Amino acid sequence: MAASGDEVKLLGAWASTYVIRAKIALQLKGVSYEYLEQQLWENQSELLLKSNPVYKKVPVLIHNDRPICESAIIVQYIDDVWAGTGPSILPSDPYERAIARFWARYIDDTVLASATIKIIKVKTEKEKAETIEQSFAGLSLLEEAYEKSFKGKPFFGGDNIGYLDIAFGSFLCWVKAIEKISDVKLIDEAKFPLLAKWAERFGSVAAVKEHIPETDKLVECYSKVLKALWNARAPNN
Amino acid sequence: MAASGDEVKLLGAWASTYVIRAKIALQLKGVSYEYLEQQLWENQSELLLKSNPVYKKVPVLIHNDRPICESAIIVQYIDDVWAGTGPSILPSDPYERAIARFWARYIDDTVLASATIKIIKVKTEKEKAETIEQSFAGLSLLEEAYEKSFKGKPFFGGDNIGYLDIAFGSFLCWVKAIEKISDVKLIDEAKFPLLAKWAERFGSVAAVKEHIPETDKLVECYSKVLKALWNARAPNN
């Protein structure tokens, strides 16, 4: 349990899915913190370089001068340190916890890292069709998982949002932006009814709303900044 | 805490780093289990396909008919379920837990997944030199981390092996095999004195010894099976 004199800082970037995770977790636990927006590709701050020398990426949570990196680890850390405050983020049952971790990792490794984000990077219609298919395959497994393990619950976490909701939900704003940029409906209600309804519910949670960037701003950020950067870098960076 | 009538099965493959993690964790907690060696590339068992339909990979821990997949998640699950038995695998302090998770993830994403294993897949001397350099860079960061966060302790976990020791230590047998196959000393005592001494200590822990395959058997497994498979597949599969 954290002491009341805690100093908490979050190094972030407003458009980052991973940073949104840390923001939602802090809000769920009612933790006050100083938010420090970072430059990511040039003129990185000394604080960022010192706090995350391995990856030089956000989010970094700095709790009483000690940095914690990687969004999944930060969310678990927040849940551990502020265990007595607010709702539990990870399920208390070990098996449910393992299932939440499994699908959260799946989202990072599959849905988020590769298939879905690739749709806006493709060069040809054939590539586009292939990546859409990959993305649908990735989402299908999540729809099946919802059906199998979470059906009848409003959230993956049960009655309230939890670890897996945060992991996937933080990405929904980018799903909407990608849908707009590529003119493809990804979380289609006809294809993925459970995910579509869950996404709607997730977006209306109070602790979530204020941390989700507007779709148009993300589209603009993509057009003005990310497109050029992504074209100049390796496919999945 | 698990009940005494628990039925625990481990689906594994003897040469897999990831399976070794689950074996060590189960042994540390004194859990009895049935070990079921799996065919990985053809004729996969119904039980494996049913238990891990997403990745179709080992290890899978089956606890009272419920499957848990992914080695990092399995080790945490074992630590959670058998919390009252044997030593804790993850540190109890949230910050130390976050640090252990960070470096374990780093090992999976960097040291293990790419740089080190690539050394035996390269086609040219130039590629070999490059991958050796990448591998040394990856190990350097771990050496620095040991110096900074774990120095003076025999293990990353403190007086006993813990989560990070298992994550990295399970790979040491393959490091030795790769050193033999490629004729390159990777965990060189002159370059990485702390890691080299830690590796020696890790290898002599009673709970570890019996689960570590002999170097020559891994070299043989590589020459007879893996080399052909790896050459036929994508670089990091």
From TrEMBL, chains A, B:
Domain GST C-terminal intervals: 93-225
EC number(s) given by UniProt: 2.5.1.18
Any one GO molecular-function label of the UniProt entry: glutathione transferase activity
Pfam name, any one: GST_C
Name of this protein: glutathione transferase
Protein species of origin: Ananas comosus
PANTHER family the record matches: GLUTATHIONE S-TRANSFERASE U17, GLUTATHIONE S-TRANSFERASE, GST, SUPERFAMILY, GST DOMAIN CONTAINING
GO cellular component, one term: cytoplasm
Catalytic activity: RX + glutathione = an S-substituted glutathione + a halide anion + H(+)
SUPFAM superfamilies (UniProt xref): GST C-terminal domain-like, Thioredoxin-like
Record bears the keyword Ribosomal protein: no
